[in-house]
Amino acid sequence: MSTFSERDFDAERYDRSRPCYPNEYYAVLNEYHQGVRHCVVDVGCGPGTATFQMAALLNGFEQFVGTDISQTMIERARAASGRDERVSFQVSSAYDFSFLGDAKANRQTLDMVTAVECVHWLDFATFQSSVAANLRTGGTFAIWGYADAAFIDYPELDAVLDDVSYANDQLGPFWQQPGRNALRGMLENWVFDTRYFTDEQSAKVRVADLRTPQGLHAQQRALIISKEMTVSDYANYVKTFSAYHTWKTKHGDSEQDIADRLVETICRVQPELTPDSKVKVAWNTFYKLARRI
Ligand SMILES: C[S@@+](CC[C@H](N)C(=O)[O-])C[C@H]1O[C@@H](n2cnc3c(N)ncnc32)[C@H](O)[C@@H]1O
Asked: In Gene Ontology terms, what is one molecular function of this protein (predicted)?
């Protein structure tokens, strides 16, 4: 997936407009992890969304390394780095751990590897064998992500939001496939390679489940991603999609911006909303945890 690596990809807007992950989820990750807590590598870290959160919320780890193939994303992550010397960032492919140095790379030295909102862009078999070569026995492999936000209190807008992402005359043709479809399906059929990994723990949440919260079990409640934002903020979130970036590259300013048009459609279909109205937005989510054998 190269869109996020393009020099004109707006990593700053990505950082501002994308959701982060709830503390409850990091509590699950903390509890799942067994044994030594030296180093976590967060692959496909983008602007460091989960890397920074892990540094704040995972107990006892000494080092957090975010890696991403996009120089633009890593520059953004580095710019956001504070004085926490435990956190660092590297430009690297997800399959390549040579940044660890000869003494550590491919020698099963890591305690945790995470891949957040990015594994759908990867060849999962190749990625799993790279992770297996670097994760110590008993170490944690954690993947999670989200897609397809909806306005919780406005189910009548579900079709409008779905259309902007997937209709053929909107962003539908601009996604890289099969990655997007895999994410849309919450990596439903993606299984850990049992030669390398065991003790799978996983959960999924659909926005529809949140409209009837009594239907959620405890494991699902860990990764509820929801956020209050204005309708205009939502358009800014749409502008962080790789498909939007590709749409914009193709259309330029030759027609009305597709995300701005979405705001108009939302306010027409639901007249009580204005661009400044605050709405509660939630995402379909999944997580999958496993332990290195
Ligand atoms: C949707 S962003 C997710 C960023 C961050 N993990 C988060 O939770 O918001 C996906 C990231 O995966 C990165 N990526 C895609 N393919 C990659 C690859 N083959 N190797 C490393 N990073 C990759 C992209 O550059 C992008 O920053």
From this structure: methyltransferase activity
The answer to whether the CB of 143 is under 6 A from ligand 1 is no
Contact call for residues 109 and 39 (beta carbons, < 8 A): yes
Q: What are the two backbone dihedrals, phi and then psi, of residue 67, each rounded to the nearest 5 degrees?
A: -125, 145
Q: 73 CB less than 6 Å from ligand 1?
A: yes
Q: How far is the CA of 45 from the centre of ligand 1 (A)?
A: 6
Which of 85, 131, 91, 115 is closest to 291 using CA atoms?
131
Q: How far is the CA of 115 from the centre of ligand 1 (A)?
A: 8
Using DSSP, state whether 163 is helix, strand or coil: helix
Ligand 1 atom 12 nearest Cα: 44
* Nearest to 148, CA basis, from 106, 121, 176, 183: 183
| Per-residue pLDDT tens digits for 96-145 | 999 999 999 999 999 999 999 999 999 999 999 999 999 999 999 999 99
- Using a 10 angstrom Cβ sphere, with 0-12 exposed, 13-18 middle and 19 or more buried, the burial of residue 69 is buried
| Second CATH level (architecture) for the domain 3-149+176-226+284-292 | 3-Layer(aba) Sandwich (3.40)
What does the domain layout of the chain look like in residue ranges? 3-149+176-226+284-292
Q: Give pLDDT tens digits for 14-70.
A: 888 889 999 999 999 999 999 999 999 999 999 999 999 999 999 999 999 999 999
User: Is the shortest distance between the CB of 247 and ligand 1 below 6 Å?
Assistant: no
Gyration radius from the chain CA atoms = 19
Burial of residue 36, with CB atoms counted within 10 A of its CB: 0-12 exposed, 13-18 middle, 19 or more buried: middle
Atom number in ligand 1 closest to CA 4: 25
